[in-house]
Amino acid sequence: MTNKNNSSQTKSSCCAANETCAPKVNRRQLLKGIGAGMATMTGAFTMPAMAGPFSKEPTGPTTDGPIPIDKKLSADWVESLYARGKATTYKGWQQLQYIGMPISGIGTGTVYIGGDGKLWVWDIFNEQHEGVVPQVYEHPTLRNEHGDNKIKERNGANYISPPAQTSPWHFEQGFAVAIEQGKNKVRRTLDHNGFSDISFKGQAPIADINYYDASTKINVELEAMTPYIPLDTDRSSYPATIMRYVFTNKSTNAMRLSVEGWSENPVLQNKAEQQNAHLLTSKYVDQGGVGFISTAVGNDSTAQQAINTLPDFGSFSMMCLDSKSSVAIDSELAKLTANLELKPGETKEVTFIVSWFFPNQTALYKKEHKNIKRWYASKYDDAKAVALDVANSITELTSLTKLWRDTWYDSTLPHWLLERAIIPTNALQTNTAYRFDNNRFWAWEGVGCCAGTCTHVWHYAQAVGRLFPNLERDLRERTDYGIGFKDNGAILFRGEYNNKDATDGQAGVILRTYREHQMSPDSEFLKRVWPNAKKALQYLILVDAQGGMPDGIPEGEQHNTLDAEWYGKIPVLSSLYIAALRAGEEMAKVMDDKEFAKLCSGIYQQGQKNILKLFNPKHGFFTQEIDPNHADAIGIGEGCYIDQVMGQWWANQLNLGRLYDGKTIRSALSSLWDYNFCPDMGPFRDSIETPSAKGRTYALAGEAGLVMCTWPKGGRQGDWEKYWQYGYFQECMTGFEYQVAGHMVWESDHDPEFLTKGLAITRAIHDRYHGSKRNPFNEIECSDHYARAMASYGVYLAAAGFESDSPKGHLGFKPRMTDKGNFKSAFTSAEGWGAFEQKGQSITLKLHYGKLTLNTLSLRSGTRGLVANNIPPTVSSSHGKASISREGKDITLSFNQPLVLSANETLTIEL
């Protein structure tokens, strides 16, 4: 049987040379090569237009298939990709009902704040389940392995049928305001049941919800957050949420308010009697406020000993930071009340801290993990201690969290891009990620799915290494080069949860090692891991040498992230390998291991040439050279595969330079746009005749996406549909899409069309996750809050042209998106973060947090603001003189003395 999901050309299964920079091209001119016809993006409160459905009228022999060459993107929509815009605001229950923004600390469980300000999900009780809200969706056509149509979470149920604001693990908890105006008294719960006029703006890590009641003319603003401070992992790991309500009387009459916060005792989840225990709630008073703590007590010592180890045993607290507030406790419910009086036009606020303490994580199935507790158990005894700690530092915690939020969004980059780049990072604030009480970082691929901080998934995730680099360093030291490290240098790609290495994951660990070195203050981390990092690279070299001498192209069995063994010469795995060789060479130089540096360089130079043999000039993309001894094994064959030049994507982020011929790489990226970017996934999915071959549904009809693999030129070998992994090829998975999108943005230096294409792919994801359809804060692949989606941060790095090598004291900013030559963005380094701004000939580097040591600063010239010909060989800054060197359109400032900035200090340079 032949599938029809290809262009009309074929019948198949689906559809560092010297370089010069391309001249600037008018953005509207680019559309001639990209297409025209897509609807214009509408306002913040309406459903955005997608890239399709597109016109069905034929426009040529290569555009008749379900993935047309002509994408028909309208000029107005393309312009909207670049527009600064405003923060996304949702309004109306249709758009608010699906919102679930994680608002818990790193590794503390999952707590959502809903679009109406209601806290929901409450997945803090250490239950093992796949997905935030596990469910089964009855699909109209697909069948599972049992032959029925009940499709579970792993197959995209939460994408197809997103859960609205409910929680199967809920307990009664909420907030309300009672309003008294003269003889009139009303009580409004602070959610959609109490207010009909609600708007939600979620600029992670802070949610801002606004309520208005026309009858009483009261306005309520909720600022909700958990402390979130990049580089400060511990103070970003509170099992707590801060709810700050601001009340404004917009009437002409005075009003009295009673602000309430209440909760059931959730400990033991309604099983206290079954466990021979009883629930206990008590009041506490602190100079900063009043609170209550709920727990459970065994009826005797034996019962207490039994419940102490249960996953849902612990404590729960709510605190009001108003010393005059009161507590009312009955057998089932505890309530805090703060009283306010508001004159007409007056504003007052009330802040609550909600905290929890359920340390007995039992969701991980390895027996050696059963007695390991959550990290916060190493610091606190109960939820009250958590609340008091937050209360005592609340001014600093909230101000730093807001400072990061403001630094991130105070940028010249579009709001929509900033939102989508940072949103997937919230996987750290869900049960995708764990911190153990021995300070080890551990993670699933997505909530409850696929154990062991999988190397071949997590190496796509660029956010953690930049925002919380100590977590990634811990993964290298304790897991990849520790628990999961074999004597021969192989790295088990799931740590203690499997007994196999993956070629892409192995190379990814080496590349991440170099990144973690660059995000360290000195070389001490690299010194510690170098012996095993070197051995891990030597293992890949031995894989390469199986057919004789290493030539830069691995062969033989190569397990990879599509959960199968591929054989032969595979472009993506070869590109990652030669990128790892380059990173290994640079690390060897740091370690003064000249012999190994020379070995890496020699093999890399062979791979640099040999990988080009996998490029098919007739196709315009790289293809797999299939091993004849495994001709029937699944692979991509002559398919156009999404990750085919991924090694260069990695090299860009590590400032490793061009790995191999740039024109060839850009041809491959162009082919991905032509053959894999689908403006409407409906016709594409309908064209796949075999239901099992459709894969999982992560993009629906009317939604655009970048398909994993197509065969536009034919040439697929073997009956691959017999493999369950074949379905992957038809899917849209955001982490892979971000990888290509970010790579295109990097390559826009040489071809301006790539900037529009990279943004369009990223925007397609952003639009798929619009709040009117599903939770915009949950990117799904295999399970919820999938780690691979953190590749989104790589798009941001590419747009900023960010470079960092903290041991060398180096930063670089070579932006590819500017506002009339001006640029501003946030940055992170090993020990500090802040904002970079380029305005004309003026450069400003302001440190907001930590410290920054700087020896060199690289900048991009050739924009409207920075004219290279006018730059002198030396320059004076606010912190000393610097010499200037030029390379093409880039300049590097080398300071005469190492420059050290502390928090709130600013470096200014006039060129």
Textual characterization of the structure:
With 911 residues, the protein is an alpha+beta fold. It folds into three domains: 94-133 and 168-403, Distorted Sandwich (Beta-galactosidase, Chain A, domain 5), CATH 2.70.98; 412-800, Glycosyltransferase; 802-910, Immunoglobulin-like. Helices cover 25% and strands 25% of the residues. The chain is built from 21 helices and 38 strands. The strands form ten sheets. A nine-stranded antiparallel beta sheet has the order 1-9-10-11-12-19-16-15-14. Strands 30, 31, 32, 33, 34, 35, 36, 37 and 38 form a nine-stranded mixed beta sheet that branches. The chain has a five-stranded antiparallel beta sheet with strand order 8-7-13-18-17, with no helix packed on it. Strand 33 and strand 34 (842-860) form a beta hairpin. Helix 11 packs across helix 12 (503-518) and helix 13 (524-544) packs across helix 14. The N and C termini lie far apart (66 Å). The model is unreliable at 1-49 and 52-63 (pLDDT under 50).
